[in-house]
Amino acid sequence: MSVHVGSKREVAPDFSGYVDEYRFTPLTPSLERALAQMVETGSFDRRDEAEELEAMGYISDLTFYLAGVARFEVTSKGRRYAEELASYRQRRDRWAADREAERRRDQWVQFAQGLVTALLGAAIGAAATLATVR
Q1: Which residues of the chain have a pLDDT value below 50?
Q2: What is the SS3 string spanning the chain?
Q3: pLDDT score, position 9
Q4: Which of 39, 41, 59, 75 is the most exposed place for a label (fewest CB within 10 A)?
Q5: Rounded to an integer, what distance in angstroms lies between the CA atom of residue 101 and that of residue 122?
Q6: Left if phi > 0, otherwise alpha if psi is -120 to 50, otherwise beta: which for 61?
């Protein structure tokens, strides 16, 4: 039996169970790319993504013209998204790091409890053996 306590191998952080305190919900990667393209170049590739971003309030006044030409305005919510996403990721990463530190602390506590139990058992066993030998 081998015991690996405090292993230094890299493990991807576990974000399951994270609930943002500011109720920020990140967009899907494709919508993030579409919004970034709209902010940077003033254009987009997929109509359905543009319509979804408008429904969510990241752009407004989406109007389609002939030959696939469209006009839209990026709202303040759309311009703030990248900044809010960075803050969200920092909070989420800090939460995951705290959770990992707590998990490691719990491992050490379990290890120490097991060690103390084994030492006490060995001491009681040794005392019982000495008592029966005399």
Answers
A1: 1-2, 4
A2: CCCCCCCCCCCCCCCCCCCCCCCCCCCCHHHHHHHHHHHHHCCCCCHHHHHHHHHHCCEEEEEECHHHCEEEEECHHHHHHHHHHHHHHHHHHHHHHHHHHHHHHHHHHHHHHHHHHHHHHHHHHHHHHHHHHC
A3: 57
A4: 41
A5: 31
A6: left
